[in-house]
Amino acid sequence: MKVYFKELTFSTDKRYQLVDITYEVEKAVRESGVKDGLCLVFAPHATAAIVANEHEGGLMQDILRKIQEEFPRDGGWLHNRIDDNAAAHLGSAFIGADRVFPVRGGRLIRGTWQNIFLVEMDGPRYRRRVVIEVMGE
């Protein structure tokens, strides 16, 4: 079995932001040489997440608005006594910091309208990492 590992870094410039990383993930799958297997996309951060959805401006704004509605910054969270980012921690915990995609024929399988996004919920950040691991034959 082949295992390929790649780490990407991104900067964000807003408190809440979707960063489309689809191209970079697909490039990593091509570089891996894996024909059939799995691709893990993981954000090693407690205040960020990974999602797959359509890259359409209105929908992207809707997603960010819904995250803020579900996890409001002024929600009376206990963690805010330590650090003013409890909402981002909750968003990451409930949305999830990873996604797994199948790889077939050397290509990432995703739906027609599914792009892969890093979800920033505690920005701006100078350095956000995304780890990609491709495994298979």
What does this protein look like?
The chain is built from 3 helices and 8 strands, in the order ββαββααββββ. The protein is α+β, with helices and mostly antiparallel strands and 137 residues long. It has one domain (2-136): YjbQ-like (Jelly Rolls). The strands form 2 sheets. The chain has a 5-stranded antiparallel β-sheet, with helices on one face. A 3-stranded antiparallel β-sheet has the order 2-7-4.
List the helices and strands and how they pair.
Blueprint: E1 2-10, E2 17-20, H1 22-32, E3 37-42, E4 48-53, H2 57-70, H3 86-95, E5 98-104, E6 107-108, E7 115-120, E8 128-136
Antiparallel strand pairs: 1-8, 2-7, 3-5, 3-8, 4-7, 5-6
| Structural class computed from helices and strand pairing | alpha+beta
Distance between the termini: 5 Å
Q: What is the CATH third-level topology name?
A: Jelly Rolls
Placed side by side, the strands forming the largest sheet appear as: 1-8-3-5-6
Overall geometry comes to elongated
| CATH C-level category | Mainly Beta
The fourth-level CATH homologous superfamily is YjbQ-like
Largest sheet: 5 strands, antiparallel
**Order of H and E elements:** EEHEEHHEEEE
